[in-house]
Amino acid sequence: MVLLESPDHERYAYEEGQVSSVLHTDSEAVSTLTQRFGMIRMQALSTGESARLIREVADQW
């Protein structure tokens, strides 16, 4: 997903999948996708935390 904003402050969301891609222009759809992206970002690990987790998992194999 890519969130876009034009110079005129119009917002868009582009989603790409295996079968199709969609450019959302409807403000409600863009708002929903923006909120979802925010939730994902809040739950994501930092770069350092991700590296540590990968090392821990690799060491278990």
Give a description of the structure.
The chain has helices spanning 27-43, 47-60, and strands at 2-5, 11-16, 21-24. It starts with a strand and ends with a helix. 51% of the residues lie in helices and 23% in strands. The longest helix is centred in the middle third of the chain and has 17 residues, at 27-43. The protein has a 3-stranded antiparallel sheet with strand order 1-2-3, covered by helices on one side. The chain contains 2 helices and 3 strands; from the N terminus they run βββαα. It has one domain (2-60). It has 61 residues and is α+β, with helices and mostly antiparallel strands. The model has no long low-confidence stretch (mean pLDDT 96).
Topology:
Layout: E1 2-5, E2 11-16, E3 21-24, H1 27-43, H2 47-60
Please tell me how large the radius of gyration is: 16 Å
- Quaternary: single chain
Give the SSE order as H and E letters.
EEEHH
Number of domains: 1
- The count of DSSP E runs of length 2 or more, i.e. the number of strands, is 3
Taking pLDDT < 50 over at least 5 consecutive residues as the criterion, the unreliable ranges are none
